[in-house]
Predict the 3D structure of the following.
Amino acid sequence: MADSNIWEGIGTLVCDLDGVVYLGDEGVAGSGEALRAIVEAGVELVFATNNSTKTPEQVAAKIAATAGFAADPEAVVGSAQVTAARLAGLVESAFVVGGAAIDAALAGVGIATTDDWQDAGAVVVGLDTAITYDKLSRATLALRNGALFYATNTDSTYPTPRGLLPGGGVMVGALAIASGRDPVVSGKPHPAMAEHIAARATGPILVVGDRPETDVALAIGAGWTSALVLSGVTRSLEEVPFDQAPDIVVASLADLAGLLPAAS
Ligand SMILES: [Mg+2]
């Protein structure tokens, strides 16, 4: 595979995080060195994550802590920030089912968060590790009262060293069923995410991720090149649907960096 150079002409690597750079709180072996080699080869980095539970600063800190790579928070595109940008100017307050990072993203565009469902112009949903029946009930009432329905992402699961745990899509799915409505979704593979990434990227884009239905589908939808790693959710090629086939499959980010022209 090394002779068909996937890096040819690439200006920006759009790098997924969970399952690529780290798994839960542990770095994926060799990911920090790989990121340094990619930067040294003159390729720009954009970290694109559907994770809505961390601010860009917290994401950058986690990359540093797990992989030993000093990431710029400005290079982090998270689904909470994209969602907030889309809601800016549409509503004054939102009811959040999710973590504090969503509240912070909304505050960044002037949207207050409220616990009162009758005040909510929108319901914003992401991964909520403190989900309760009461919270789902108030969100359902807000949605049935006409609030806008925005989801940061619809990931079914996310990878941890223990195995796959329920993702943001589980909360979104519960509220879609309870409200009888479909959300506006911002995370990968949705075009809103691609637009925000494109605004930060230079040159042709290569996307690397561990999930065909988000990472590879994002690249296919935007006309970008894609690489699938087998260090996260996807463990074998047999799990990849044919319409979400990547341009290349590698074991890890380290193996992808190993294909850089300067490294071969
Ligand atoms: Mg991932």
Observations:
- Residues 16, 18-20, 209-211, 232 surround magnesium ion (CB under 6 Å).
- DSSP finds nine helices and 15 strands in the chain.
